[in-house]
């Protein structure tokens, strides 16, 4: 009789681990994350508003945007310095960089 109890306990343990494994696979097994950016051109939420060839030019434009309280990030890619802002600030930043009042 004790042999049946050990076998039953073992089978119950296998079933429990199987169900647990199935639930974990259902919850985490399907990777729905975006494909990683291997090119280095994806800056998440930021939008490019200008691209200039020198660091000095990028610093001047970034200072102009910061003085207007627009958050800006300068990124160097492919020989250009790109000025990146949040999408909500993109239109104001482009107007300001063109010299037009916002």
- Portion in beta strands: 15-25%
Q: Report the average pLDDT across residues.
A: 87
User: How far is the N terminus from the C terminus?
Assistant: 86 Å
**Tally of individual helices:** 3
Structural class: alpha+beta
Estimated helix fraction: 40-55%
Unreliable parts: none
Largest sheet data: 3 strands, antiparallel
Question: Keywords, please?
Answer:
rod-shaped, 102 residues, alpha+beta
Protein architecture, described:
The protein is of the alpha+beta class. The protein has 3 helices and 3 strands; from the N terminus they run αβαββα. A hairpin with a 2-residue loop joins β2 (73-77) and β3 (80-85). The N and C termini lie far apart (86 Å).
Helix-strand layout with pairing:
Elements: H1 2-28, E1 47-52, H2 55-67, E2 73-77, E3 80-85, H3 87-98
Antiparallel strand pairs: 1-3, 2-3
Could you write a compact summary of the structure shown?
The chain has 102 residues and is of the alpha+beta class.
